Amino acid sequence: MLRLWLTLSLTVIASLMPALGHQQKAAITTVLFNARTHHIEVMHKFYLHDAEHAVRVIFGQHADILNSKETQQTFSDYVAKRFELLKDDKPLPLSKVGFEIDGKFFWVYQETDIPVELHNLSVRHNALRELWPSQINTVNIEGKDDIKTLTFTGATELLSVEF
């Protein structure tokens, strides 16, 4: 009986192993209104496994996001070019703050000053979406009223929130 249980358990575990190595094709971005610094802080979080696959397709097989600062910078620039915050249909000037690998994630950081009289905000987040149509980019907007969530899927190009 114990042998049967062990065999079944190992079979189930083995069947789940391929799922652990699959791409998630999802990214989470936090847009934080920081009243202390008077900045909007943008923090993009990508699964490192997704970023590894993406850089090889976008920048070539030689691209190595794990060991190359140049590839990390290039991917960070790629993300920054595909993300916009807009006030009254005009892009806010986002500065690049940096990037890092933290565990199984690749982070990209940006910021801008909080505009005066901001009643609504439009967001564009197209990172990896031209590569994988199933890519889901979620944006959580925090620090101004309740948390608001925008989800970019399919052909969605621009989403907006009101404050």
Characterization of this structure:
The structure is a single chain. The strands form 2 sheets. The protein has a 6-stranded mixed beta sheet. The protein has a 4-stranded antiparallel beta sheet with strand order 4-3-7-10. The model is unreliable at 2-20 (pLDDT under 50). 27% of the residues lie in helices and 39% in strands. The chain has one domain (24-162). A hairpin with a 2-residue loop joins strand 3 (83-87) and strand 4 (90-91). The chain starts with a helix and ends with a strand. The chain is built from 3 helices and 10 strands. With 163 residues, the chain is an alpha+beta fold. It is globular.
* Major beta-sheet overview: 6 strands, mixed
Low-pLDDT windows of residues: 2-20
Global outline: globular
The quaternary state of the protein chains shown equals single chain
Please report the distance between the alpha carbons of the first and last residues: 62 Å
Average pLDDT works out at 90
- The computed structural class is alpha+beta
- What pattern of helices and strands is seen along the backbone? HEEHHEEEEEEEE
| Helical proportion, percent range | 25-40%
- For the biggest β-sheet, the strand order reads 5-6-2-1-8-9
Compute the CA-based radius of gyration.
19 Å
Number of domains: 1
Range of strand content: 35-45%
